[in-house]
Amino acid sequence: MKDFFSQFDFQSNLLFEDLTESENQAVQNVMEPLVIKKGSMLFYEGGIPTGIYQIKQGKAKKFKRGFSGEEQIFYIYTQEDVLGYHALLGQERYQDSCEALEDLKVNFIAKEDFLRLLNEIPALQQKLIKNIGHEFGVLANIIAVLAQKNQNARLALFLLLLENRFNRNSPIVKGIDLTRDDLANLIGTSPESLGRSLKQFKEQGYIETDKRNIYIKDSLQLEQLLQVKTD
């Protein structure tokens, strides 16, 4: 499943990997630890980039509002993910928004420091370029799923992705802790329609729920709904 997950994961958590000790120290020297409260914005559509963020604890959602005000979530960031560099590098205003889903601990790197690091550390520059290219492919895959798969297949996919993403740095498998509104926005449906699909999955033994937490009990059945190769 590793290659399968990589098709839908930005992998920005790997951005600072494989640096030398001195290069890593240079990065650490310019990181400013911040606490961002649940519901606060890391950045917002139309805002001017001032730096990048590395999440150390918590989750955040990347989303864009449609012309009628509805929200479409593109990605859920988790521990070690790095975000906010696309608009900064393009010298543009943010094209989307990012909101803390819970209290976050983050490392902030100011724009000037980050651009300097890219100039001074070729390995970081190369990793970032590679990662940006990968992210374009991820977004294309997500758009294809939203456009071509039925609701149950979309739900199965995002449950598998979220479980993998949320448990990436955890020694034990935890539930998928996400509001029904956010999960519905992620898969492109209404909360009411999502509720019916979750009830069906529960009755078929694919998942269990505890309040808003969702636990996958039969990942193989969810994979079969996707009709994709997982080897």
Automatic annotation (TrEMBL):
Domain HTH crp-type: residue ranges: 149-220
Keyword DNA-binding attributed: yes
Keywords recorded for this protein, A-Z: DNA-binding, Transcription, Transcription regulation
Domain Cyclic nucleotide-binding: start-end pairs: 15-135
CDD domains (alphabetical): CAP_ED
Domain of life: Bacteria
Pfam families: cNMP_binding, HTH_Crp_2
SUPFAM superfamilies on file: cAMP-binding domain-like, Winged helix' DNA-binding domain
InterPro entries: cNMP-bd_dom, cNMP-bd_dom_sf, Env_Response_Regulators, HTH_CRP, RmlC-like_jellyroll, Tscrpt_reg_HTH_Crp-type_CS, WH-like_DNA-bd_sf, WH_DNA-bd_sf
PANTHER family reported in the protein's UniProt record: CRP FAMILY TRANSCRIPTIONAL REGULATORY PROTEIN, REGULATORY PROTEIN YEIL
Name of the protein in question: Crp/Fnr family transcriptional regulator
